[in-house]
Amino acid sequence: MALPNYDVLLRSVARLLRAGAADNLLKLLQRQHPVDVAYIFRHLADRDRRTAFDLLAGRDRRLAMEGLSELDPETGASLLTYRAPEEVARLLGELPADDAAPLIKHLPEGFSDQVRELIRQKKEVGSLLEHADRTAGRIMNPNIFALPETATAGEAVAALQRSAGLEMVFYLYIIDDERHLVGVTSLRRLLLVPPDTPLRQFMATEVIRAHADMDQEDAARLVASYNLLAIPVVDDQNKLVGTITVDDVIDVIKDETTEDIQKLGGLEALDEPYTQTPFWTLVKKRGRWLVVLFLGEMLTATAMGYFEEEIARAVVLALFVPLVISSGGNSGSQAASLMIRAFAVGEVTVPDWWRVMRRELLAGAALGALLGTIGLLRVTLWQQFFGTYGTHWVLVGLTVTLSLIGVVLWGTVAGSMLPFVMKRIGADPATSSAPFVATLVDVTGLVIYFSVAALVMRGTLL
Amino acid sequence: MALPNYDVLLRSVARLLRAGAADNLLKLLQRQHPVDVAYIFRHLADRDRRTAFDLLAGRDRRLAMEGLSELDPETGASLLTYRAPEEVARLLGELPADDAAPLIKHLPEGFSDQVRELIRQKKEVGSLLEHADRTAGRIMNPNIFALPETATAGEAVAALQRSAGLEMVFYLYIIDDERHLVGVTSLRRLLLVPPDTPLRQFMATEVIRAHADMDQEDAARLVASYNLLAIPVVDDQNKLVGTITVDDVIDVIKDETTEDIQKLGGLEALDEPYTQTPFWTLVKKRGRWLVVLFLGEMLTATAMGYFEEEIARAVVLALFVPLVISSGGNSGSQAASLMIRAFAVGEVTVPDWWRVMRRELLAGAALGALLGTIGLLRVTLWQQFFGTYGTHWVLVGLTVTLSLIGVVLWGTVAGSMLPFVMKRIGADPATSSAPFVATLVDVTGLVIYFSVAALVMRGTLL
């Protein structure tokens, strides 16, 4: 296997660092894939990381920066700040623009302006930062390999041979005199036609493309669903401004998933990895939603207050409150997760709500009946063995069973419909998190439970 | 934009179908990308779908099958079952093996054996099905473009030009006499060296590879983290048996995410899209977890039973039960989601537990103090305005505040540690779903709440 034994690797690096064996360390690092160099950087202590990076940056600038670009941008930027702006600009010049942009963004403010200015004099990283966050324009690579439609296949191959500096060339985009995107062809195709054929003659003119101001998630979805390796990015005038490659798409998919899962857990998306998020940011992003949910949940205390007399008369009612309302919350959480994911993969859209509703009504009824039966069994068994619920245990059992059916049914329907409501009002369906649904269902669940109790127990216990 | 207006497109197709205008319909379909043909298939009624597919299968077998392969395999297979096994084998021959395998799997049993036998006589789809589900071997494409190390760059280009039938060629894998994987090179590189250079001289020998019996998720992770377009798959003897391309990797990432989100919502992973899952499967996959959670949650009734006398004496205690325990559940759900995702992206591993624990202890204390303060405020305000909580309202407020701090702290720690426990015992961290954590925290939350109450109210209300 070509994959290194990471433990052994890290230990060797640490040993060479301690011994100050710069040449051997350099040789060891140069044998590694950039991703593994990043792994080494990530797992070294701060001081050792700087030593290793400095060594590499002096001797093998390209590898140093390739390793650095795989780190999170904050750590990466911290390794650059001790240098002169000119050298940082030179180092960043080794990276494709879309990898350099986040590093520049994380440099200290005045410093990053200086570096940006130096780079702008030579390259186009600056233009990336002109696009809004989370757009296709922000994640695209502005160094495009494009040729005029009048070029021939042979000329294209020659141009390709000269272009060794470019990240990855998957498709050859073809433009007219004014940089409008007019066609595309693949490297394979170039090899299949006689060298003197003009590109115009065999290029495909139906090009799937992304707009620079498109949401990055939509651009990623295009690449994924059309099985592309890259997608060209155009501006309002259909002029080619960049490309997004499939490796960036995978990163977008991962980031968006992280965001969805965090929202689903009932907190704001962190934007940065958990371990990199400052403590107070972490507390703030969780606290805000916790408070909102807490304020909502306060209605349970109000609802319970209305039934205070009933509880005083039949304390047994209070015993089942957590069981009944949590069953509603759990079934709601299931339904909401199903719908949120179905929205995310484009399996359902808002007009499907009625079809989903019918299905979930039936599912909710079935699940409610299931839990209701178990609830009844529980009350009956405890009564037989311990006499827990007194002479009116049948009424207690009936109340628990009927409320469970009602609450689970309601939880299922509310949980499945909330993502539709969110989508309809323009919010992210993932906002209808498990805790959000549970809070909603808790309050209504209490009302259902005590109403059923009032109905069943009137004249006896109540 | 090259993206079609889907509404217009579907209406045109429907109109042509109704008019029986086969030639025009064929022309329209042939202008579409296979992904859009699949879109059309997906949105037609069953009968129309068959008509459209039959038309296309008769005239443009390749496009018909490319469109079909983008559908879910069940629907796709249903379009094939009305044909002779020989014709189905011929149609499936248009697809790369990894796209054909799921279709074959979904054919009726006897029929699929016949088709498989017919295909095996010519091709290698059969071998895919020999690998276990969810392994690299199962999702790989067994039609590999590989050349011996003695071939020259010029011969490789020529071989490439002849290989038009292969799905996508990204890298050229190089093998020795016994099919052992010995090197790799890129198409670009082939163009850069003189045509008579042997591959052996310029190939890279450090090849990142996947084992056929490796978990598909691990293989996907290799492709994603090394920014590869494809990864070669080898058997135990390091013999090349297939490749996994980046488009399959994106599918794996999507499927695994769906599974994580469904587990996070407290149900078993569905395996199939929500809309394709039969009703009773849906109920079963949700019901099983709901019952487990319900049985766990029953302990709340038991716990409440222990405090029945306290509740009878101070009914006001019951009013805050849902508020207090749900706050624990919500903070636990937040912490669990954060950890589950951190595990999924490889950001934390089991040995990090203590570092996370320290951080979450502090976060839990801060969040508990926040909610506790709001809780105290609520009791004070309601008391001032409505006199809700009687003469001992200070004790009520103190009980609520202290329990909130305790319960939120406990919820945060339990929620963050449960994924570590799961991972440690070899289970999927995503199993520690929001409902699971909430159930765990509900029971202990009640104990915390009533213990605090006993402490604070002894001699007065209790």
Descriptive report:
2 copies of one chain form a homodimer. Chain A is mainly alpha-helical and 462 residues long. The first copy, chain A, folds into 3 domains: 6-130, MgtE N-terminal domain-like (MgtE N-terminal fold, Alpha Horseshoe), CATH 1.25.60; 146-255, CBS-domain (Roll), CATH 3.10.580; 274-457, SLC41 divalent cation transporters, integral membrane domain (Tetracycline Repressor, domain 2, Orthogonal Bundle), CATH 1.10.357. Chain A has helices at residues 6-19, 22-30, 34-43, 46-59, 61-69, 73-78, 85-92, 97-105, 109-120, 125-129, 136-139, 153-162, 187-192, 199-202, 216-225, 246-264, 279-306, 308-313, 316-319, 321-344, 353-386, 393-424, 434-457; strands spanning 146-148, 171-175, 181-186, 210-211, 230-234, 240-245. In chain A, the strands form 2 sheets. A 3-stranded mixed β-sheet of chain A has the order 1-2-3. The radius of gyration of chain A is 31 Å and the shape is elongated. Chain A starts with 5 loop residues before the first helix and ends in a 5-residue tail after the last helix. The mean pLDDT of chain A is 85.
Summarize this entry quickly.
The first copy, chain A, is mainly alpha-helical. Helix content of chain A is 65%, strand content 6%. In chain A, helix 12 (153-162) links the parallel strand 1 (146-148) and strand 2 (171-175).
Topology:
The structure is a homodimer of 462-residue chains.
Chain A: H1 6-19, H2 22-30, H3 34-43, H4 46-59, H5 61-69, H6 73-78, H7 85-92, H8 97-105, H9 109-120, H10 125-129, H11 136-139, E1 146-148, H12 153-162, E2 171-175, E3 181-186, H13 187-192, H14 199-202, E4 210-211, H15 216-225, E5 230-234, E6 240-245, H16 246-264, H17 279-306, H18 308-313, H19 316-319, H20 321-344, H21 353-386, H22 393-424, H23 434-457
Parallel strand pairs in A: 1-2, 4-5
Antiparallel strand pairs in A: 2-3, 5-6
